[in-house]
Fold these 2 entries.
Entry 1:
Amino acid sequence: MVNEKMKKTLYDKIYDSHIIYEDKNNTSILYIDLHLLHEVTSPQAFDSLRNKSRQVRQPKKTFATMDHNVSTESKDINASGSMAKIQMEELIKNCNEFNIPLYDLNNPNQGIVHVIGPEQGMTLPGMTIVCGDSHTSTHGAFGALSFGIGTSEVEHVLATQTLKQQRFKTMKIEISGIMQKFITAKDIILSIIGKLGSSGGTGYVIEFCGSVVENMSMEERMTICNMAIEMGAKSGLIAPDEITYAYLKNRMYSPYGEYWDKSLHIWKTLKTDKDAIFDKTFVINVSNLSPQITWGTNPDQVISVNEKIPDFNLFDNLVKQDLAKSACKYMNLKPGMYLTDVKVDKVFIGSCTNARIEDLRAASNVLKNKKISKNVKAIVVPGSGLVKREAESEGLDKIFINAGFEWRLPGCSMCLGMNNDKLSNGERCASTSNRNFEGRQGRGGRTHLVSPIMAAAAALHGKFFDVRKLDNSGNN
Ligand SMILES: CC(C)[C@H](C(=O)O)[C@@H](O)C(=O)O
Ligand code: SF4
């Protein structure tokens, strides 16, 4: 148990303030402030609740959206096939029965759960937030303790608004240096995952800090926390500050009037104490960072755009060598190759990692007055209805469409291919999403994770391209 006089990390502060009960083995029951639901991981939880004749304890602290298998071409519930239809219909039925607000296909603000939570002001500093979805870590960008849970835990939270938890270890990742032009939050988090490995964060909640993080927008911070899970971490956290408050002011569910002032007062205490001790610390300077691209089937198999695919015989352990070998085979690549010599078939700009307004602004800026390669099929899928409308009001849709992209409806889409947006066998994709596992975007599909501007540059050239070398004169 943490001694009250001890200096605390931000994680400990949030954790401690939500304990309802803690036993001598440090197992706690935590109060949950916000529970987010989507169509894929909630149906069994509701069924089970119904079977036990239980109610949803706090329907007003629960929000649902349809995102994973919605069509991005039509608002028709039948458009993504029968399984998708069943899951969406179940969600509608369950939300009606239990009085839970639902962002359904016809809601103008429907979108990816991790995009709409923050933009509607549901996600607030100091909260505990859960969802049956691993990328719930995204909400940590606001200084909220947020993590993914399994379906039986979804049921438990629905019924009790609490969750059994163990205290996790804490890791501090300090990001310093200067972010050069064309280097994005995506490049930073990919390079951190590359250095620490896909299990480097296992057992930890990671607090990201340092001058680079302090200067980041909320969109950039969300990209960082979103991918903390890809290094195995329980969650990512960033202390709230003026940038956080400015983002949250006047959002739909943000506190207002005197509640805003009271909240600010509390939010300002949400910082790791000066001498608090982390279980592990990692420091990275990003001044010399180049744009990153994954070459393998795991987010930690990543290189700079100007590097060759590594000779895995030089890797220090056999497991890593084997993984790299099979990844190269699946990806149809060889050590020593440059990805800038490799053609792409599809480009996907979307997902809860990189489908927010700033991501679309950045990508469209690269595409302005240019045409994508004839050999590439490219889609842009805004993270939410709000992002889509905002982008359209700025004319970004026109830039994408004129360049040759398809401008789609919001959803998870080709991030995981649960709708019709998939890669075919052997197709290669420059994707702004967060996972590149075998078959992630469709059976036999080959995914390379990149930033939105690197994805746009790949679309223009028909192969991977160093976005820093783009000609701004209007030629590709
Ligand atoms: C479908 C869902 C359970 C899954 C997750 O938890 O992450 C999905 O969102 C993903 O990104 O793979
Ligand atoms: S966009 Fe991708 S990573 Fe995010 S919740 Fe949807 S499927 Fe999961």
Note: The chain has a mean pLDDT of 97.
Entry 2:
Amino acid sequence: MQVVKTEEAVGMVLGHDITEIVPGKFKGVAFKKGHVIQEEDIERLLRIGKEHIYIFELKEDELHEDEAAIALGKLICGEGVLFTDPKEGKINIIAKQKGLLKINRDLLDDVNDLGDICLATIHGNRLIDEDGLIGGCRVIPLIINSEKIESVKSILQEKGPIFNVKPFKPLNAALIVTGSEVYKGRIEDKFGPVIEKKLKKFDTEIFYKTIVPDELDQIKEAVIQCKDMGAELIVVTGGMSVDPDDKTPGAIKATGASIVSYGTPVLPGAMLLYAYLEDIPIFGLPGCVMFSDTTAFDILLPRVMAGEKIVRRDITRMGYGGQCLKCKICTFPNCHFGKY
Ligand SMILES: Nc1nc2c(c(=O)[nH]1)N[C@H]1C(S)=C(S)[C@@H](COP(=O)(O)OP(=O)(O)OC[C@H]3O[C@@H](n4cnc5c(N)ncnc54)[C@H](O)[C@@H]3O)O[C@H]1N2
Ligand code: MOO
């Protein structure tokens, strides 16, 4: 460390904590070790009695933690993501907009594996609101070799950045409620309002709704009609289980749709079906989606609304973290449910 005159220390890195005592008012650290001295700090330092201070000398290949944190922020944050000004070598990673949070787990692990850099996040593949906290990045030592930043650059150069928030795209949605008991007016439809509310979160309106009995041909025709009317998302409710009157999976299949999965390793939501008719996503939703606050539908829907193509493996991976604990106060998506 080098001793410099305080007036000449602007832009230099303080090598030790400086304590200030104002009798009856304040005793504590006025400037922390590692602080980059600003023009406006000089007067206060002189008033504390520091005419000379120790400063760190940065070699050419060294970076101060704050400078390094900014360089890292630029490398790791992609579309829809921003980072805050560094404080003591730490930046917060924030969603610039509401959307689907994507985190490249492999790249995250590779960066953390380098050492001297700590990158902590929430889980990806979930809805995040504007200004939502995604994670934090801290440089561990006060001074870091710039080679570390170069290593991060080379890890990310092909597959980076690590974080993106994909905006949701409102879709023209159609709803087909199945169930002879609803069709015949024995009971009131309670499924429709639940779906309407869940789609509203993604600014998606139901432009067409129909109620059909548990008849395979009628369900099939309704699906084809929705497609012909220009539906961009088709939701079919009820009749998803194994009773003789459960015709929905067979009807969706009979339209020629390709079934990505009938059955998801998620509880509740085990009987959910996901398919594409041409490129239109179709959900077959079991009764539990009407009854339970959070199900497999809530896990998959954000990805569909961000325009992601869902493949079978996306669904089979959902078993890990797929058991809802039905907490008294539901904090989804801020819990393990749906983190796969
Ligand atoms: N033997 C088995 N039984 C069940 C299984 C299973 O694997 N083996 N799975 C269970 C699971 S998990 C669920 S979830 C439900 C799936 O139910 P469905 O999608 O087949 O639902 P439905 O049989 O059509 O109806 C169940 C229940 O909900 C009422 N309902 C349905 N739609 C509406 C609506 N639009 N409005 C109001 N109420 C509605 C319906 O009247 C029934 O009471 O199956 C389990 N069984
Ligand atoms: O589709 Mo049911 O679990 O899965 O409640």
Note: DSSP finds eleven helices and 20 strands in the chain.
